[in-house]
Amino acid sequence: MGKAPKKRSLADKVRKTKTTSEIKNNPFEVKINRKKFDVLGRKSKHDVGLPGVSRSKAVNKRKETLLKEYKQKNRCSKFIDRRFGEYDTKMAPEDKILQRFTMERQRVHEKKDVYNLNEEEELTHYGQSLAEMEKFNDVVNSDDESEEKGLLSAELTASHFGGGGGLLRKKALGEEEEGGQRAKSRQELIEELIQKSKQEKRERQVQREEAQELTEKLDQDWKNIQSLMVKKTPKADKQEEKPKLEEYDMMVRELGFEMKAQPSEKMKTPEELAKEEREKLQKLEADRLRRMMGEEVVEGAQSQIHFSADDLNDGFVLDKHDKKTLAYQDGKWNMGEEEEEEEEDEAEDEEGEGESSEEQESDAEEDKVEEEEEEEEEEEEEEGSGEDDGHSDLESEQESENEEEEEASPKPKKTLSKEEVKAQQEAAKAELPYTFAAPESYNDLKDMLRGHTSDNQRLIVARTQKSNHPSLAVGNKLKLQKLFGFLLEYIGELATRSPPELSTIDKLIPEVYALCQMFPDAACKAMQSILGDAAHSMEETLEVKGHAAFPTLDMLIYLKVTALLFPTSDFRHPVTTPALLFISQALTKCPVRSLQDLTSGLVLCSLGVEYVSFSKRFLPELINFLVGTLHLAVQDKASLGYIVVPPFRASGKYSDLLVLSSSESCRSWSKKSLPLSATQQLDLENNPDRDTHRLTCLSTCLDLVKRCCLLYKDLPSFTHIFQPIRTLLSKHLSTQTLPLQELSSEIVEAISSMPVTQSALVFDKRKPIPLKLLTPKIVEVLDYGKKRGSTREEREKERLKHKYKREFKGALREIRKDSRFLAREKLNEVMNRCGYNSS
């Protein structure tokens, strides 16, 4: 049997259309695929190609296939009969017609009868039928009103609501028939109705009053009968029969007398506090100016009233003591009421707290006694006693009004004499102003503080800061930042004076700290500029001379202020780190040539210890300087046993600065702190004064060594670091400094008591274990240039994978071309609809 003929599609017909010879011969239509190299025996099918022809064939193919499918999409040329039972062959035609009619009637009925109510259902409201409620059979039950109230008579209805003409005519005819009298007019009928209604109202009022009188009479009779029926027990029996209160009831009653909590004021913001402080200072300044001009000052508000623990907060105030105080003077009883009243009036504002507390305690005791008496009286009184005391409240109100009028009446003002006014003016001029303007320059600050004591200078700076708070005006922030810089400059000037005003600097430091907390960035920049200038000047001096002098007193104070204003425990800080480096550089590069230089160096050492007290950072320059300082006190420098580090020398001109001239000075010396003024000017005229200062320097040095031992005791190399100090104190200075023998022995014991924790470094005796290595996997390749795999199944698998990848790529490529073709066709349709010519 032969193969079945393959069905030819339209795409095959398009693909097999032959190209003309003109296209084949056109060099612009032909594309030659060049080869990298020729292979003998290999024939290539795609050496020459026609891309234009291939593209046109693909377009024609898609027009015949894909375009037609796109145009016929979502189109249907068939009619579907969706009537009920049309395609059901088992149903009879009559059944189909009947079922369709029923469904049509149901659909119409559902639409029409949506809002129709069923007449058989009974409508209700709150459980009552609406049909019963429409009959209005409610009965009006009222004791106060008559049954006729609310009903309208025929005459009233006819006269007020129309239609009354016929009724009036009928009534007139009836009256004529009866008595032959004349008919009444409309006005007369209305008057009769009004009189009748008034008469009925009066009758009802009389009945109500009679009923009220009878009720009151009955109540009074019942009270008389009840008093006869109740047997009154004696008072002694009452007290015995009265049950004792339990502890819980007593606590409840005590809590009832306690004062309730008063609402506290809300927390105020820093801006509000600054505003209140400024207003207070402005008010005080205005009062001072009035006193200086001789004007009378209006007294401020009264001082805050003191409340004791026993105060009931009921508004009761005891104006004066009821009891008269007795005094014995010159053998006679002195009852000076007028003098005591004057003294009490003057001392009310100053000592009113103690008196008010005593008065309130006595009032509380009297109130307790009165309450007990009132309770006993209330038990004995009868219920009708309330009428007798009806006017007591009026009398108390009149008394309180009289007291208020007396309090409100202004006291006569005291007139001051000319001498008193003049003295008041002089006192006001001597006072400090309460408000100050922020200085614009350093000279303004100096003028502001010149001639004042240290306390007044601190007060002036504080008031300037409060009067120019940043929250009060826009430019105050810049003014206070400038004030911080001016204060630092002023502190430096105070330190350079002779003698230096250290007490004034101490008073100004809190205000400088407050400004630093308010403007940390500006304070940081100001201190950085000062430290930078000092470091640059020291470097320039070192480059020129090779050595530099120790920092002056103003720079030492700046370093101390830096430790107070900024944290010293940070690992790296923009202010304290440069300051610590400056201290280290000064301790290393500045040579010691006099006792004044040594004093400055010890002050720098104390500052260095303060800087590293929290972080416990090791400072080698500090230890080296302390070792050099102790070396200056050694007399015999032949065999030292330690190394001296610059700026000190083992022997030379300035290596005996701390050697005592005589041993007798040790007996008269007493321990004192090292004065800061010695760093600026040191006047030592004779040898005893020099020996005293030398011993003070040695004492300070040993104190610093002891503090360093406590700081660095946790270091592994502690014994090696302090080995030179141990050698100095145990061998060279053991017998020379007798007053400091106790302190030096403590330091030697502290150094020797520390255990040696480290051991010598040696190689490990065991052979080290090598690292684990992974053996590489070697795969033998037999067929070079072919697909891997030796078996037939693996080769078939690789071939199918390669074919699948190729077909998959071709399918993706065709899908992309189809989508681009459809996009072009859709664009052409849109262009044609809009009236654009596609050509």
UniProtKB/TrEMBL annotation:
Region of interest (Disordered), ranges: 1-22, 159-219, 257-279, 327-428
Keywords: Nucleus, Ribosome biogenesis, rRNA processing
Acidic residues compositional bias, start-end: 336-387, 395-407
Protein location: Nucleus, Nucleolus
Coiled-coil features, chain-numbered ranges: none
Compositional bias per record (Basic and acidic residues), positions renumbered to this chain: 179-219
Any one GO BP annotation for this protein: maturation of SSU-rRNA
Keyword Nucleus in record: yes
Superkingdom in the source lineage: Eukaryota
InterPro entries: Nop14 (IPR007276)
GO cellular component: Noc4p-Nop14p complex; small-subunit processome
Family: Belongs to the NOP14 family.
Protein name per its UniProtKB record: NOP14 nucleolar protein homolog (yeast)
